[in-house]
């Protein structure tokens, strides 16, 4: 809460200062404050001019920070070729597997674009429940307004997975990998094995 209040106050200071600069344009002198998350550059310091373009950028940045600073939930969408699981639903947190490493998404997460790795997405809903959904591949997009979209090639609730069927899929994929004769066939079979291994792990 303290960090949230600090972030909100910083955003308010930036908005006030930048808006004043934009409104006054090129006055002879003005009190100017410029601060970021990691450094304070000016605090009520007299300066001769700040370009309107810089002021506009400051207003945009500060407004974005203020909007993100108050967020404690995020609009979440999860859809696949076979089902839409969430559509702009408020959730608390989403844990995702990606090729750059598994990570959790909370409100105010930095804008991100990542590729889904075969594995389990865990969605923590506002009422306290959590849902686990297996995904084969896809994309993760975290937007500047804290909204999150996950588009999966294939997705199924973990509790609907059959462990025995998953093992059969893995065995078949391994067999196809062993018998693959071309580089293309080997690459495709290797992907199938990786998905099947993640499926077995999720179903177990």
Order of helices and strands: HEEHEEEEEEEEEHH
Mean pLDDT: 78
- CATH fold annotation of the domain at 74-160: ATP Synthase, domain 1
Largest sheet: 9 strands, mixed
Q: Judging from the principal axes of the Cα atoms, what is the shape?
A: elongated
Task: Give the CATH class of the domain at 74-160.
Answer: Mainly Beta
Separation of termini?
39 Å
| Structure class | alpha+beta
Instruction: Determine the strand fraction and express it as a percent band.
Output: 25-35%
DSSP helix fraction:
25-40%
Identify the CATH architecture of the domain at 74-160: Sandwich
State the helix count: 4
**CATH superfamily assignment of the domain at 74-160?**
F0F1 ATP synthase delta/epsilon subunit, N-terminal
Low confidence ranges: 1-27, 65-70
Rounded radius of gyration (Å): 24 Å
Number of strand elements: 11
Pfam family, one: ATPD_C_metazoa
Protein name: ATP synthase F(1) complex subunit delta, mitochondrial
Domain ATP synthase F1 complex delta/epsilon subunit N-terminal: 75-155
Family: Belongs to the ATPase epsilon chain family.
Structure description:
- This protein is an alpha+beta fold.
- Among the domains are: 74-160, F0F1 ATP synthase delta/epsilon subunit, N-terminal (ATP Synthase, domain 1, Sandwich); 163-203, no CATH class.
- It is built from four helices and eleven strands.
- The strands form two sheets. Strands 3, 4, 5, 6, 7, 8, 9, 10 and 11 form a nine-stranded mixed beta sheet that branches. A two-stranded antiparallel sheet has the order 1-2.
- α1 packs antiparallel against α2 and α3 packs antiparallel against α4.
- The radius of gyration is 24 Å and the shape is elongated.
- The two termini are 39 Å apart.
- The model is unreliable at 1-27 and 65-70 (pLDDT under 50).
- Belongs to the ATPase epsilon chain family.
- Keywords: Acetylation, ATP synthesis, CF(1), Hydrogen ion transport, Ion transport, Membrane, Mitochondrion, Mitochondrion inner membrane, Transit peptide, Transport.
- One of its GO terms (molecular function) is proton-transporting ATP synthase activity, rotational mechanism.
